[in-house]
Amino acid sequence: MRPLSWIPSFVLIASLLGLSVLSACAQEPRPLPDCEWCGAAEAPDDVSWTTTIAGADEPGEPMVITGTVYRPDGETPAPGVLLYVYHTDAEGIYPTRGDEQGNARRHGYLRGWMRTDDAGQYRFTTIRPGTYPSRNEPAHVHMTIKEPDRAEYWVDSIVFADDPLVDAAYRAERDERGGSGIVDLTRGDDGVWRGQRDVVLME
Ligand SMILES: [Fe+2]
Question: Under a CB-based contact definition with an 8 Å cutoff, are residues 158 and 179 in contact?
Answer without folding.
Answer: no
